[in-house]
Amino acid sequence: MSELQDLYQEVILDHNKKPRNFGRLEGNGPREGGRVLHADGHNPLCGDRLTLYVDTDGETIRDIRFEGSGCAISKASASLMTEAVKGKPLAESEKLYRGFHELLTGDPSVRGKAGAELGKLAVFEGVREFPVRVKCATLAWHTLQAALAGGEEPATTE
Ligand code: ZN
User: Fold this and answer.
1) Diameter of the chain by CA atoms?
2) I want to staple 88 with a disulfide (CB 3.0 to 4.6 A). Which of 92, 109, 129, 155 is the partner?
3) CATH number belonging to domain 3-156
4) Could you tell me the residue ranges of all domains in the chain?
5) Percent of the chain with pLDDT over 90
6) Residue 16 in contact with residue 76, Cβ under 8 Å?
7) How far is the CA of 30 from the centre of ligand 1 (A)?
8) Tens of pLDDT along 92-106?
9) Ligand 1 centre from 110 Cα, in Å?
10) 155 neighbors 42 (Cβ within 8 angstroms)
């Protein structure tokens, strides 16, 4: 393993152990002019489950939290995702979603720019070698899409 891969591994383990933005969006509900959207996500292949809460005014993700249980990759990915999109405009979170998907499933030779914008999310690059794990890493992002779409359909990686 290279030093970079070691570092990536460390970030993933750290976020698994101490997930950021973990828990419900508590009682006081959305801030003025917004609403809290939520969606459930399930990755049947691995057994990962999560519920995502998003406080949005329709333009910006003002707050985001998640709860659930799953493997280290799924938990670390949800943790890093919430950090990456919190406070960001919806359009930008959509861009990150596409870039992240590209990182994990796209052609590495044409990836270039999207990868550079992903910041810490790039720690999941190694996951692309393990197709089963790709679903663990993308679950949180699929669930975010489901939440923003209204959350009526639970997200599943199948
Ligand atoms: Zn998993």
Assistant:
1) 49
2) 92
3) 3.90.1010.10
4) 3-156
5) 69
6) yes
7) 30
8) 999 999 999 999 998
9) 27
10) yes
Token couple for 50 = 């999560």
> What is the C-alpha separation between 82 and 100, in angstroms, rounded?
13
- The answer on pLDDT for 116 being more than 70 is no
Residues making up the chain, counted from first to last: 158
pLDDT greater than 60 at residue 27: no
Contacts of 145 (CB under 8 A, 6+ apart): 97, 155
Neighbouring residues of the ion ligand 1, judged by CB less than 5 Å: 46, 48, 71, 74, 136
**Residue 2 pLDDT > 80, yes or no?**
no
What's the gap in Å between 58 CA and the centre of ligand 1? 30
Amino acid (1-letter code) at residue 32: E
Q: Where are the alpha helices (DSSP H) in 18-158?
A: 72-85, 90-105, 108-111, 113-117, 131-148
What pTM was computed for the model? 0.90
Distance of CA 32 from the midpoint of ligand 1 (Å) = 36
Distance 26 CA to ligand 1 centre (A): 26
State in Å: Cα 46 to ligand 1 middle: 5
What distance in angstroms lies between residue 39's CA and the mean position of ligand 1's atoms? 18
What is d(CA 95, CA 6) in angstroms, rounded to the nearest whole number?
27
